[in-house]
Amino acid sequence: MRREAMAAAALLALAGCATTQVDPQRPRVALETSAGGIVLALDAAAAPVTACNFIGYVVFGDYDGGSFFRTVVRSTNTANPHPIDVIQAATPRGSDDDSRPPIVLERTRDTGLRHTAGTLSMARDGPDTATSSFFIVIEDTPSLDFGGMRNPDGQGFAAFGKVIQGFDVARRIQKMPADAQERLIPPVAIRSARLLDPSPKVCTAGLRP
């Protein structure tokens, strides 16, 4: 029953029944977490593959019941020569969610986006392996861009949006207690993720039935 309700909500969003916004290529997504609300603006013009993939997970409720499970703080992230400040989230199936195929890596070299504070980006292992796990950048981190060496392959990560409300919530999550593996104790629950605007036309053909 819950799945049917999510599918109905997805169809409404795709039909353009959500709230109208100025830029149809930057739809907003509202995350309701146990730490507070965060609103994201996706960039489907610069990073259509990544943005549409994220929207697909959102409209079918895949992030509901997931969590922000990891926090990385530059001052303590000394095991890597290129430390970062991010918080990472996943669906209830975890960061290695294989419920959908991985997507092609949209490199910042090609999109023109950068991993500045508030940027939304995709977690990955090798290139073209990202699925559903995403992260929010807390401080400017050029080592996450193409040519940066946070990942030794130098290909960077796929930035695809920005926090436009609730960045204080993201900062607060980053400062919460974590174990030696950078896992939040306890994780911050994602109660819901909702698309607030019509899905961009570039996305509608690719969303799963």
First-residue to last-residue Cα separation: 16 Å
Low-confidence stretches: 7-21
What is the helix tally? 5
CATH homologous superfamily grouping = Cyclophilin-like
Q: What's the β-strand tally?
A: 8
Which structural class do you get from the secondary structure elements? alpha+beta
Q: How do the strands of the widest beta sheet line up side by side?
A: 1-2-7-5-6-4-3-8
Shape descriptor: globular
Q: Can you walk me through this structure?
A:
By secondary structure, the chain is of the alpha+beta class. It has one domain (2-204): Cyclophilin. The chain is 20% helix and 25% strand. The protein contains five helices and eight strands, in the order αββαββαβββαβα. It has an eight-stranded antiparallel beta barrel. Strand 1 (28-33) and strand 2 (36-42) form a beta hairpin. The protein is globular. The chain starts with a helix and ends in a 5-residue tail after the last helix. Residues 7-21 have low confidence and may be disordered.
Helix-strand blueprint:
Blueprint: H1 2-14, E1 28-33, E2 36-42, H2 48-59, E3 67-72, E4 86-90, H3 108-111, E5 119-122, E6 134-137, E7 159-165, H4 167-174, E8 183-195, H5 201-204
Antiparallel strand pairs: 1-2, 1-8, 2-7, 3-4, 3-8, 4-6, 5-6, 5-7
Features:
8 strands, 209 residues, alpha+beta, Cyclophilin, 5 helices, 8-stranded antiparallel β-barrel, 25% strand
Short description:
By secondary structure, the protein is an alpha+beta fold. 20% of the residues lie in helices and 25% in strands. β1 and β2 form a beta hairpin.
